[in-house]
Amino acid sequence: MEAMDYDVVILGCGPGGLQAAVHAARRKVRVLVLGRPGASSLARAHVENYLCVPGKAPGEELLRIGREQAAAFGADFREEDVVRMEGPTEAGGFRLDLEGGETVLATAVVVATGVQRRGLGLKGEKDLVGRGLSYCVDCDANFYRGRRVAVAGDGSAAAHGALTLSRIAAEVHLVTREPATSPKLLERLGEAGVRVLTGRGVAELVSDEQGLRGIRLDDGTELELDGLFVETGAKGAMELVSVLGVEMDPEKFTYIVTNKNQATNIPGIFACGDICGPPFQMAKAVGEGCVAGLAAADHVRKRRQEAGGGDP
Fold it and tell me: Could you tell me which residue ranges the FAD/NAD(P)-binding domain spans (predicted)?
């Protein structure tokens, strides 16, 4: 399958990502925005403290307008999440694998994924971390080779995690209320033998002094397990970019560290919005998105000049 080639790929279509798309596209570079509008925290909120927006504006409507603006300037959109990133390549770019199995090549990447609340909020959850409970399939899958496991979550991270585990574990369940992922990925789960339990969530963690022994779902179903992986939402920024060496904040390892141009320590990777830390305000996300979009487009221009291709 031939990879799609873009100058700037933006991960996330909240206010930061959309503003980055507007400014990058206006610089006449090829822009692709990845992600689902409904995944933005703004989609479920109202805004009444943003300059020049009177009254209480619905976030969903603001996102729709922003998406139309970015598209009008030439940005492309795909409602898919990234499940793996590699790079920088010898050419200085990045390879992004999408949940549906396709690949995108990018000269620059803007991370605007926001931050996620990862836990289930269940009794005894913190005590079971590392004792049968994990928040990262990529990190801990090999500990469960030949064992019985489940993945809890609704987004692409959960579905892709279950697919990864199907090649390692003996038995894999995906517990999801409503899988927010591509039909192609769901089809691959079935082919891999993953048991998908839809319309249900984890209600209780069953454990003993040794650690996790199973889970009880909210419909009363009980599963005997050796391991449970909690993978909420899209693939988190930490999992995607930390493997590339992108610097995270040293205290919580939750936020991406950037300079005044929203550039990370890895040339070609930029970040904006909530993923760069508080305050979690739309005004901050939009301002950083503007800077990140311009800086990413400038990075593309510089790379083309170095390659002898002239100014894009």
Answer: 6-289
Spatial distance between the Cα atoms of 301 and 129, rounded to a whole number of angstroms: 45
Residue 3: both structure tokens together: 């990879």
Query: How high is the pLDDT of residue 160?
Result: 86
**C-beta atoms surrounding 4 within 10 Å:** 17
Looking at domain 125-230, its CATH architecture is 3-Layer(bba) Sandwich (3.50)
Per DSSP, 87 falls in state -
Q: Among 122-136, 188-202, 275-289, which is the least confidently predicted range?
A: 122-136
Beta-strand ranges (E) seen in the chain are: 4-11, 31-34, 46-47, 57-58, 76-78, 82-86, 94-98, 103-111, 133-134, 148-152, 171-176, 195-198, 202-208, 211-217, 222-224, 227-230, 269-271
Residue 196 contacts residue 187 (beta carbons within 8 Å):
no
Average pLDDT over residues 228-235: 75
Q: What are the residue boundaries of the structural domains of the chain, listed by start? A: 4-116+236-306, 125-230
Q: Could you give the C-alpha distances from 181 to 11, 86, 224, in angstroms and in order?
A: 15, 21, 26
How far separated are the first and last CA of the chain, in Å rounded? 27
Q: Give the Cα separation of 69 and 60 in Å (integer).
A: 14
Strand order in the sheet with 211-217: 202-208, 211-217, 222-224
pLDDT tens-digit profile of 160-206?
889 999 999 999 999 998 877 778 888 999 999 999 999 999 999 99
Q: What is the pTM of this model?
A: 0.72
